[in-house]
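Standup notes, protein team

Yesterday: finished cleaning the Toxoplasma gondii GAB2-2007-GAL-DOM2 set.
Today: ImpB/MucB/SamB family protein structure.
Blockers: none.

Input for ImpB/MucB/SamB family protein:
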Amino acid sequence: MLARARDTRRTIPVVVHLDL
């Protein structure tokens, strides 16, 4: 879980790309 929280910055751009 902590590893994912650290990759939040990478998850945000990914989610935005999918939202596009």
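Follow-up from PR in the comments: Residues 8-19 form the longest helix (12 residues).
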